[in-house]
Amino acid sequence: MLIDTTLREGEQRFGVYFDQETRKQIIKGLIKFGVEEIELGIAAATSADEQRDLAELVELTNQAPSMTSTGRLGTKTCASLWSPCKEEFIRLAAKLGVNRINIGVPVSDNHIQKRLKLSRDHLLEHLRTVLKTAQDAGIEYISIGLEDLCRADFLFALKVARTAVGLGAKRVRLSDTVGLFSPLEMADLVRKFKNTLSCHIAVHCHNDFGQATANAITALMSGANFVDVSVLGLGERAGIAALEEVAAYLYFRNKSAHYNMSIIRQLCELVAKAANTPISESKPIVGSSIFACESGIHVHGLNIDPMLFEPFSPETVGAKRKIGLGKKSGRAAILMALKKIDISDTNPSQDQTISNLVG
Asked: Which of 246, 279, 249 lies closest to 265, judged by CA?
């Protein structure tokens, strides 16, 4: 299951600012695409206008039905907010009408001591107070994010998670805050938490070493219930796991997802324009040239059966195949090009004539 955090983590990308109308369009696109949860922002708005905008997004998400790839009503998309581990922000989240909250809890000693100025014991006590506040506020689904887990003491992080679950948390999110984990390490980590805790497991994978999508998919294959994604992988520094990549893998490779892949290109283009972030022509799933081909051996294969050299058809993601002629082209590519511009297919000797022309 996917937690899209384009409007929270994605908007933390340097220089990215979404206006309210763009946020609404992104939410509508994500709902139509079929994501299970949308993290709408941070429950730390300081002005009345910011609070009103967040409340509007919560209401939009709560009221709209989700759609499956067949266009039928699907599982309801949930709205959530991220919150620092502070009571006032928890109360604000409840006031904004959200019933699902993701609370960030730093678990590495560096973050606990340098950033929060707390000891481990004080952190646990503070967590207990915050969780009680969330329950008293009527928030139904509490999620705890173990921040900087990649540099934390594992046993202490597990203690924090057990404490949270014992006090009513329904999900623990494992955060690879600076992208240090490899897929093998992620698989091991997910299994350890999954085997120990009686709650949902989620992961938040950063892409500092180019591992985010692989780590997210590996986490799901290892038993995680949720993974964080954002459109185009937008996020701090190198970003996080990309929605379009994780969703496509689940849809095409695992055959385990309902996502409406036909609109993914449109959704990515919307976010790219709003974020002033160009989409690389070779970007997986949505790049403009990923179905373009001119090399002879590949064109020959595509002419026989496109699936010989394509993992899925371009139409399934709203794209078109493009065959070009160039230095790398062979006889098959030239034949295909000539057939496209030929006037008629009625002449039985046409293929032989063309073959003679190209040798």
From this structure: 279
Q: Which residues of the chain have pLDDT under 50?
A: 69-73, 343-344, 346, 353-359
Which percentage of the chain shows pLDDT scores above 70?
A: 85
Nearest to 77 by CA among 57, 92, 53, 52: 57
DSSP state string for 245-268: HHHHIIIIIS------GGGHHHHH
For residue 25, what are the CA distances in angstroms to 39, 233, 269? 15, 18, 12
pLDDT value at position 310?
Answer: 78
Phi, psi of 301 (to 5 degrees): -65, -40
Beta strands in 265-318 (DSSP E): 292-293
Output DSSP code: residue 231.
Answer: G
Determine the number of helices (DSSP H) and then strands (DSSP E) in the chain. Answer: 13, 10
Answer yes or no: are the C-beta atoms of 274 and 13 closer than 8 Å: no
Q: Which residue has the tokens 């206006």?
A: 19
Pairing type for strands 141-147 and 171-176 reads parallel
Mean pLDDT of the chain: 88
The phi and psi torsions of 141 (rounded to 5 degrees) equal -125, 110
C-beta atoms surrounding 211 within 10 Å: 22
Rounded-to-integer distance, Cα 107 and Cα 131, Å? 16
Count of residues making up the chain: 359
Yes or no: say if 148 and 112 are a contact pair by the CB < 8 Å rule: no
In this structure, are residues 211 and 178 in contact, taking their beta carbons and an 8 Å threshold? no
Tens-digit pLDDT profile for residues 273-296: 999 999 999 999 999 888 877 666
**What global pTM score does this model have?**
0.88
Distances (CA, A) of 37 to 27, 202, 211: 10, 12, 23
In Å, how far are 75, 173, 196, 287 from 72, measured between CA atoms?
Answer: 10, 30, 37, 28
Task: State the amino acid at position 286 in one-letter form.
Answer: V
CB 99 within 8 A of CB 140: yes
